[in-house]
Design a protein that fits this description.
Blueprint (H helix, E strand, L loop, with lengths): L1 E3 L48 E3 L6 E3 L7 H7 L2 H4 L7 H96 L6 H31 L4 E2 L10 H18 L5 H4 L4 E2 L11 E2 L1
Antiparallel strand pairs: 1-2, 2-3, 4-6, 5-6
Helix pairs in contact: 3-4
Length: 287
Amino acid sequence: MAEKQGKKSSAPNRKDQPVSTTNKATITKTSAADEEDAVCVKCDKVVSAQDYAICCEICESWFHIACQKIPRPVYDYMVVEESGKQLHWNCSFCKHGYENMHRNLKRLEKQQDDITRKQEVIVAELCETKETVREKMEQVDTMENRVSTLEAKNLGVTDYIKQDETIKLSLITRVSELEAKFTGVESGHVGMDKQNTTSMKINQQQAQEQVETVIGEVYRRNTRVNNLVVHGVPEERSGTEEQGNEICMKYIQRIMEVCGVRDSSEKIEKVLRLGKTQQDKDRPLLV
């Protein structure tokens, strides 16, 4: 805040004397003579050393106190040296700009706080995602180890199935030989009752069926050793069952490829869902 000297009234008291109104803390010019070219921004009149005028601390423009409607008592108090260090005056334009700047700074400060909070949330989500990825990678490693173990077991089961096929062919051959013998006995009219021969033939047929049943059951059991039950595979409910099985087949093939199983499409015969359809739960997948 800076003020020019003003001419007072002629009353015989302390206020009649001109008062130096220069505030050295805010004005760059040191005397009224330096301000002879100063003009009041409000009325465009020259501000002389005898005028009661005040200077804006921000834009350093001069104003008559009458143009700014500043009362004389207030002006007289403002020009006192002690009060000059405590009171500051700005024109309406600078005051409005300062208020806008203060509001903008407050808004920017609030935006900065919001950005900081969002950054903290994003960092927390990234840490959580990193932990989830680590857990998934551990699950993939575990699944890969299990697939390797199953492949090793599958080789042994395949050999066992081949042995069963050999036994089955041997039994069928033996049964065929027995049929030939019984046929020869019946056609040769050997001293044997025809009814007994028929009964033996029936018994032989039943024995053959039982043998084939046992062999088939052994084969199915050995085949089920190669089955996998996979949980957590998304279930397609919008299309047909055939379309859903085709999607599941591709999903399992991708899992096998990730686990390092080559030619997985040739090793998988079929896939199907176990249990009844549920709207809120995916059924296990039999591979």
